[in-house]
């Protein structure tokens, strides 16, 4: 029985095996335009697709019918600061027309289950934010009902997608396209300037047609580009092409085939998906490609990971292009990395600049955002460039060597502009401010990552303080959650973030009490370096934005370093600076209550440097963070002093026009810096002013500074007046102590609360009036010096225009190879500076050995200072070289011979290296020998000083110079004498310019002309001798004796005058008469004989009073020419004529 049953079963099996097969073997079809494919399902119905075009990406497949009616993008709801919704307020009301993070792209490319779609913009299409009942935030993703092999048949393509102005204005644009897509409603014209329209490339599987693809459907299949719903009714459907000159509208194809525009949040337009078929892998199991018998297939042999479009693909080169030898490792829980992508990051650390120990300098930690692992080399170079440029701004430049700068390579999966996953989740909000988003991926404490995660790990592993972490950042500490991290701000002066983008933005976040102390700046915007310097001003210096239109409350007045609301110039906090350089008081905007000290400041406009108020406040701030700084001297200026803008009442008008009137006036009077040459020979009698402000950094010691100002000829000599007095002035200024220093943001303070702006501050003004007889020359300038108590020059007339040069710091091993994870930075120093740096004893795990390039003047660009380090456990063998003894000279001391190790740079007394010289400067010194003195004498003259110079005949050094004052006053005791019949010899008096009387026959001799007995003019010659040279001739006159009136007799309209006869050494007389006692309009009559003693004066007015006087004269010949020498007038008498 059993055998029989078995036989029947085998027979049945054989019968079945010979039946014909009904399943078609898999085949690879040749897809053509017009062919149909059935693949995937939506709402429990299969989807029919048609090939509408074939291009470089392959067959373009378009859904035969619309699959649903859905909004393109929801209005802003959960995340107003996220992605494209942060770029326009209109998107709050209409949704976004940006394809890349739209709800439509998120949904079409999602395989997620119901309610699990990852909405890329962070704003789901939920009730109230899409029109009507069109919410689809709880729907499953469009691809949810597709099989894995069906999804694999959809090619992942990178293609052009046009963008609108909120994007391209932010730099979100590829290629060199430069125009908006013209708005044409006819499908034949809709692509008129497509190839030159703003675009970016996007990567996806499923998409909506763009206008060019729709145009291709029209060209290939005519009316097929018009869509129909499942009821056979023509229906409008979305394109992915925005209206590019609008910030929200999208293009769509209407039911009549026109290209229209519509707000994205409306839910009544159809969705007609498209994809490119991967024809290399697509195989069919049935169908002929017709509408009634479409191909049915997939790509079962294509190996593909689970598909997601949550973020763009990761870095195509996932390997680091920087050293990871020195790194910190973080463990970030869901508060910092909710999606887990950055939960255990390795962060390579690079030293950009480390001039001293981290405990002595201000430490700046710079992190990167939107740099992939293979872009970290670019990040390092970006930090070096931005830092070097920032150090060209004062007050940073004065502290350039007091910063230690580290670059932390926080690698992202995507570049910033790709819109993909980045380390810090930075987004740019509607105010164009970059912020760390806490809700982009639900990482609630992401913006605390600096002080809670990166800072403590850096301080423990890298910082020279090596302080162990105080608590786990993934656990909320008991008590205050912020206080355990306050110490971070004591060791890291500033956190910074550089974003890998060309977009132009910037933002700073300062609230140490709540953990924030970082700023964000772009890497490659058109003003990236300026933005970095501006944001650093917020972060490190505590300066506010000067462009914001706002109102400062009284309680914020003393807290704000560079802003004010006090309009009274007598009370404004920067009152001591008013009129100095561009310091004024002006509204930062029309009608604003916020006041600034200048319109020309980087905190208002990045085209400028920091203004004087910001420089002063910044210098004070940094002086609290580092030691060894005791005084701030603002770069002085010299102006012609006219009295304009010299008192507070000159600064009461706060409007823009008044500020510019002030600057025009100042520029017209400026005589220093680049305006030195404005000084000219017409400055006689005018006043000039040397002005600066000085801040004492000490709260213990007052200071006393000397100001010197003089007029300098082009040859360097000092100009003089006509008497040889130098045109110069000196004044001393007392600088008070900074009593309020403890209140001004000391190290360890969480914030600047309030302080007295004017504590320790002194406005210094030295005014000098140039004499009216100043001997000025073309090319003259005003020179000045500001000197400390020891005569050190703190500033002079070359300070403003002094040349600066660059210095680079390198870090190497003894063999000259570079130390890993170092990238020497560059900073700016004044030309001729002698750097005085103290290298840190350790760098990472290496021990300092020596330094090259210090303690010598920096006189060329590209100067390199090299710090050498070695492994701590590495033994060192000395390589000693003899340094020969140096003999002492009269100019410098000598030095005994010693030995130097070329490896470690240490010094030794002996060749075996057993006696180390720890202080070479004080060891083995040989005193200088005495100078061999000689003397040269330049004799003084009546017009020029002389000098006695003692110098060394060996080294030619001038040992002393003694001025011989010029003989500036040479006079006769009397220059007019009266004839008395005797020889006259007036005394000569000679004095030098100091008033000292010179000695006759020692310093000079005198010779008199002959015949000095008679009326005439005689020469006196002074000939200098001894320490003086030159001659001087003076003259005196012997006058004839005078006469007197003996009688006056009146007549009719006349009078007769008689006088006493004076016949000796006279030729004649002169009679003078006038109706005025002062002899105005007087008439003079000459009597040519000395024997005549009377004269009748007629033709006068009757009954009129006249004043009359008489004098003698003698005619003599001098140098062949006859001249008259007169006596003095007689005493006047009066006479009244008769009728």
In short:
The chain has 1139 residues and is mostly beta strands. It is built from twelve helices and 63 strands.
Describe the structure.
This protein has 1139 residues and is mainly beta. Helices cover 10% and strands 30% of the residues. Strand 47 and strand 48 form a beta hairpin. Helix 7 (376-390) crosses helix 10 (528-539). The longest helix has 16 residues, at 2-17. The protein is elongated and about 160 Å long.
Please supply descriptive tags for the structure shown above.
1139 residues, 12 helices, seven-stranded mixed β-sheet, 63 strands, mainly beta, elongated, disordered N terminus, single chain
Low-confidence stretches: 1-24
Number of strands: 63
Taken from the alpha-carbon principal axes, the silhouette is elongated
What's the multimeric state? single chain
Fraction in helix: 10-25%
- Across the major sheet, the strand order is 7-14-3-2-1-16-15
DSSP strand content: 25-35%
Question: How do the helices and strands line up, and which of them pair or pack?
Answer:
Blueprint: H1 2-17, E1 36-42, E2 45-55, E3 58-63, E4 68-69, H2 90-94, H3 103-108, H4 148-152, E5 157-162, H5 165-168, E6 199-204, E7 206-208, H6 211-221, E8 227-228, E9 234-235, E10 237-242, E11 250-253, E12 259-262, E13 270-271, E14 273-276, E15 283-286, E16 295-298, E17 327-329, E18 346-354, E19 362-369, H7 376-390, E20 403-408, E21 426-428, E22 434-436, H8 449-461, H9 487-491, E23 494-499, E24 507-511, E25 516-522, H10 528-539, E26 586-587, E27 595-596, H11 612-623, E28 631-633, E29 637-641, H12 656-669, E30 687-696, E31 703-712, E32 728-735, E33 761-769, E34 781-787, E35 793-796, E36 804-813, E37 826-830, E38 842-843, E39 846-852, E40 863-871, E41 880-883, E42 894-895, E43 898-901, E44 907-908, E45 916-917, E46 925-926, E47 933-938, E48 946-952, E49 958-964, E50 969-972, E51 976-978, E52 988-991, E53 1004-1008, E54 1016-1024, E55 1031-1039, E56 1045-1051, E57 1054-1059, E58 1068-1074, E59 1083-1087, E60 1094-1097, E61 1105-1118, E62 1121-1126, E63 1133-1136
Parallel strand pairs: 1-16, 19-20, 19-23, 23-25, 36-40, 51-55
Antiparallel strand pairs: 1-2, 2-3, 3-14, 4-13, 5-6, 7-14, 8-9, 10-11, 11-12, 15-16, 17-18, 18-20, 21-22, 24-25, 26-27, 28-30, 29-30, 30-33, 31-32, 31-34, 34-35, 36-37, 38-39, 39-40, 41-43, 42-46, 43-44, 44-45, 47-48, 48-49, 50-52, 53-54, 54-55, 56-57, 57-60, 58-59, 58-61, 61-62, 61-63
Helix pairs in contact: 7-10
């Amino acid at each position: 029985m059993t055998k029989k049953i078995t036989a029947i079963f085998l027979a049945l099996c054989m019968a079945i095996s010979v039946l014909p097969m009904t399943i078609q073997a898999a085949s690879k079809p040749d897809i053509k335009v017009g062919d149909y494919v059935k693949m995937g399902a939506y709402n429990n119905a299969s989807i029919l697709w048609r090939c509408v075009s074939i291009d470089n990406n392959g067959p373009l497949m378009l859904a035969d019918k619309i699959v649903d009616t859905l909004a393109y993008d929801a209005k802003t709801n959960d995340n107003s600061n996220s992605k494209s919704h942060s770029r326009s307020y209109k998107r709050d009301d209409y949704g976004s027309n940006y394809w890349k993070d739209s709800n439509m792209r998120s949904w079409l490319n999602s395989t997620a289950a119901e309610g699990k779609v990852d909405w890329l913009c962070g704003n789901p299409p939920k009730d109230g934010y899409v029109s009507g009942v069109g919410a689809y935030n709880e729907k499953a993703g469009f691809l949810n009902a597709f099989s894995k092999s069906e999804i694999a048949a959809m090619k992942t393509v990178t293609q052009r997608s046009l963008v609108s102005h909120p994007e391209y204005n932010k730099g979100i644009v590829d290629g060199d396209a430069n125009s908006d897509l013209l708005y044409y409603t006819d499908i034949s014209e809709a692509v008129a300037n497509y190839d030159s329209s703003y675009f970016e490339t996007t990567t996806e599987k499923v998409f909506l047609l763009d206008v060019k693809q729709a145009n291709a459907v029209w060209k290939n299949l005519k009316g097929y580009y018009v869509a129909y719903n499942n009821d056979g009714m023509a229906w409008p459907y979305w394109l992915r092409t925005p209206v590019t000159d609008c910030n929200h509208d999208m293009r769509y194809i209407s039911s009549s085939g026109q290209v229209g525009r519509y707000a994205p949040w409306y839910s009544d337009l159809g969705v007609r998906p498209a994809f490119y078929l991967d024809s290399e892998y697509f195989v069919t199991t049935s169908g002929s490609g017709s509408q009634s018998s479409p191909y049915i297939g997939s790509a079962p042999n294509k190996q593909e990971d689970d598909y997601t479009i949550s973020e763009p693909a990761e870095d195509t080169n996932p390997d680091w292009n920087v050293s990871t030898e020195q790194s910190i490792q973080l463990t970030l829980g869901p508060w910092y990395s909710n999606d887990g992508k950055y939960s255990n990051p390795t962060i390579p650390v690079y030293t950009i600049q480390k001039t001293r120990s981290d405990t002595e300098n201000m430490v700046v930690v710079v992190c990167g955002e939107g740099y992939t692992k293979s872009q970290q080399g670019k990040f390092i170079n970006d930090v070096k460039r931005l830092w070097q440029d920032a150090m060209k701004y004062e007050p940073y430049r004065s502290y350039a060597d007091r910063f230690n700068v580290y670059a932390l390579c926080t690698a992202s999966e995507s570049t910033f502009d790709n819109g993909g996953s980045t380390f810090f989740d930075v987004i740019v909000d509607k105010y164009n401010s970059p912020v760390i988003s806490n809700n982009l991926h639900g990482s609630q404490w992401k913006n605390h990552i600096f002080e809670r995660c990166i800072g403590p790990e850096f301080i423990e592993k890298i910082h020279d303080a090596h302080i162990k972490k105080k608590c786990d950042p993934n656990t909320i500490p008991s008590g205050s959650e912020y206080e355990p991290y306050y110490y971070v701000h004591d060791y890291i002066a500033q956190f910074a973030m550089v974003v890998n983008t060309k977009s132009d933005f910037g933002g700073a976040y300062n609230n140490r009490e709540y953990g924030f102390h970082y700023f964000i700046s772009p890497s490659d915007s058109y003003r990236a370096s300026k933005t970095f310097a501006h944001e650093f001003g917020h972060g490190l210096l505590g300066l506010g934005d000067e462009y914001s239109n706002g109102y400062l409350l009284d309680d914020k007045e003393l807290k704000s370093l560079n802003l004010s609301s006090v309009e009274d110039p007598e009370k404004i906090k920067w009152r001591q600076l008013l009129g100095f350089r561009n310091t004024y008081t002006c509204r930062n905007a029309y009608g604003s209550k916020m006041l600034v000290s200048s319109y020309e400041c980087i905190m208002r406009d990045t085209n400028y440097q920091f203004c004087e108020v910001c420089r002063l406040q910044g210098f004070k701030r940094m002086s609290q963070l580092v030691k060894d700084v005791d005084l701030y001297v603002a770069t002085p200026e010299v102006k012609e002093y006219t009295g304009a803008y010299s008192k507070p009442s000159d600064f009461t008008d706060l409007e823009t026009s008044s500020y510019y009137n002030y600057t025009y006036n100042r520029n017209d009077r400026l005589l220093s810096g680049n305006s030195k040459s404005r000084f000219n020979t017409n400055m006689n009698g005018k006043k000039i002013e040397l002005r600066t402000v000085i801040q004492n950094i000490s709260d213990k010691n007052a200071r006393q500074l000397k100001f010197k100002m003089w007029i300098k000829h082009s040859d360097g000599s000092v100009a003089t007046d006509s008497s040889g007095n130098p045109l110069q002035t000196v004044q001393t200024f007392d600088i008070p102590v900074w009593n309020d220093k403890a209140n001004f943001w000391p190290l360890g303070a969480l914030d600047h609360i309030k302080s007295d702006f004017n504590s320790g501050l002194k406005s210094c003004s030295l005014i000098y009036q140039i004499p009216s007889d100043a001997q000025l020359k073309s090319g003259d300038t005003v020179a000045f010096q500001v000197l400390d108590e020891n005569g050190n020059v703190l500033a002079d007339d070359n300070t403003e225009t002094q040349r600066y040069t660059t210095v680079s710091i390198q870090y190497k091993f003894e063999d000259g190879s570079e130390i890993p994870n170092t990238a020497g930075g560059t900073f700016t120093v004044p030309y001729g500076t002698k750097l005085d740096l103290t290298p840190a004893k350790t760098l990472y795990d290496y021990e300092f050995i020596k330094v090259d390039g210090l303690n010598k003047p920096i006189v060329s660009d590209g100067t390199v200072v090299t710090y050498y380090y070695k492994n701590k456990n590495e033994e060192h063998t000395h390589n000693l070289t003899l340094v020969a003894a140096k003999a002492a000279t009269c100019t410098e001391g000598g030095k005994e011979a010693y030995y130097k190790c070329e490896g470690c740079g240490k010094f030794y007394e002996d060749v075996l290296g057993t006696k180390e010289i720890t202080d070479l400067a004080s060891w083995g010194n040989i005193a200088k020998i005495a100078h061999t003195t000689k003397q040269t004498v330049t004799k003084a003259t009546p017009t020029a000083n002389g000098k006695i110079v003692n110098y060394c005949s060996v080294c030619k050094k001038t040992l002393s110079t003694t001025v011989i004052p010029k003989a500036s006053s040479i006079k006769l005791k009397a220059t007019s004498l009266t004839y008395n019949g005797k020889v006259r010899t007036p005394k000569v008096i000679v004095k030098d310019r100091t008033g000292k009387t010179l000695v006759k026959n020692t310093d000079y001799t005198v010779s008199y002309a002959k015949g000095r007995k008679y009326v005439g003019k005689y020469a006196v010659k002074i000939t200098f001798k001894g320490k003086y040279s030159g001659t001087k001739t003076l003259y005196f006159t012997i006058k004839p004796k005078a006469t007197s009136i003996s009688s006056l007799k009146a007549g009719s309209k006349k009078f007769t005058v008689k006088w006493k006869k004076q016949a000796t050494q006279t030729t004649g007389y002169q009679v003078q008469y006038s109706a005025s006692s002062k002899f105005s309009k007087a008439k003079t009559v000459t009597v040519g004989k000395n024997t005549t003693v009377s004269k009748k004066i007629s033709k006068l007015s009757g009954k009129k009073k006249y004043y009359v006087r008489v004098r003698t004269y003698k005619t003599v010949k001098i140098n062949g020419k006859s001249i008259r020498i007169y006596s003095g007038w007689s005493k006047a008498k009066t006479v009244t004529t008769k009728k």
